[in-house]
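Hi everyone,

Forwarding the result from last night's run.
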Amino acid sequence: MFKQLTEQDASYLYLETPETPQHVGGLSLVELPAGYAGDFYADYKRHIGQRVHLVPLLHQKLVDLPFDIDHPFWADSGAVDLDYHIRHQTLPRPGRISQLEELVGRLHSNFLDRSRPLWEFYVIDGLESGQVAIYTKIHHAAMDGASSQTLAGVMYDLTPEPRKLPPPPAASAAEATPGVEQMLRGVGEHLARQEIRALQYVPDVLKAWAKLVLPDVQTLRYERAVLPPLRPPKTIFNVAITSQRSYAIRSWPLGRFKRIAKQADATVNDVVLAVCAGALRRYLKDKGALPEKSLTAMVPVSLHKPGEPATGNQDAAMLCTLATDEADAMQRLVRIHEAMLDQKRLLNNIKNTLLPDLSFLGSGALLRGMVDLYRRAKLADRLPPWSNLFISNVPGPPVPLYIAGARLLSMYPCSIPFHGSALNITVQSYNDNLDVGLTACRHTVPDLAELADLLGEALAELEQAASRPPATKPAAKSATKPAFRTRDAAPTPPAKSSARRKARTASPSQPKAKVTS
């Protein structure tokens, strides 16, 4: 069996440059069973090996077309070399969390081998806590945030005792790489589908434009125009980047974010954005680099249909102000909440036009050439940015999970910076916690841990602000419920820098392995 990549899937291949590997990943801390005396690396490798056949992306590889005339195909790779894909690392003593962050940053800098299935998993021991870390990376062409939860559903169990799953099929000869005739037939079918989709796409575009420019059919009134912030300020993050990555993780109880959201009549995602905004404001202000104009975040949203298995990439993005020009934490949340309502309304009007999967012969080569020109000329240093950074919120499993008999304590995301956007903050909920992973260009943001510590201070600041009288809280604002999901804790005084450094180097001691500021 072989299947051609969609437009969005293939775009992550064309966006890959020597400085911008396009894989996403995750870091989890796991707690071994009491009295465990085995080899967890061997047990983990056996566990994955028994389930590889259930997840296509783990046993399929890319087959490129000559000269990028059309998108590549996924084809079965035959037997998967688990010794290559699943690796073992040991931290040097004393095995602090800061050392783990450093190692994951280096591992995340390395490219995946395109001649093999596009994934690598690492078992990392040597932590002073006695816990074990698992770092995973998979190419974005095969998976987005929502489809990663489908992978988790196969790989993890709800009890320490693994589920009984269908065994691998009987051994057979590996499927041959598609021949020229098969690939040409596939390209021809793709072109035919493109023509049909193009015709079907026209009514959707007309409907979207009608919603944007025509009055409401019932009231004959025009809605207020909603546009994303189109001219974000230039910041220290908006430059050409290197391939080297810095990485930091933090975790807080999800209940703290929910409590603020309830007090402020906002959403948890609004609170996440406001906490990030508060930390970014302080970080840039301390460097004398805070622009007068507010920063803008690119906020990915999932367009996977509810109830359907999430496979591949089906994402869009919203541009949302972070109100970093506002000194008051609650007023920042008010502005972010209102801006997100507006952007959701805009996205609802045009969502049917966002994933047409339309292309033409040679579009991949053209896009690859444009990206190469962009990075060689370092245009990110010269041109105004589209946004200042990426902030993503992925809803994760609400219950404890297990893998190879070990209890999963955390699910920290690890994502992609790009030229012109050197910082990515991705948040994932898991078992009543909110786990945060910050990924950045190591050259541009060498002190990423300081920014991560400021997230905790911003959260405490927002908690204090949310406890003020209701007059300062955002008024309820009606909006049509969006047909998509956003990928989408008593107040304490800000910690001093010495306390932040101590927290950063400490090993997690709580059962849920929280890494707090």
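The first helix runs from residue 7 to 14.

Cheers,
N.
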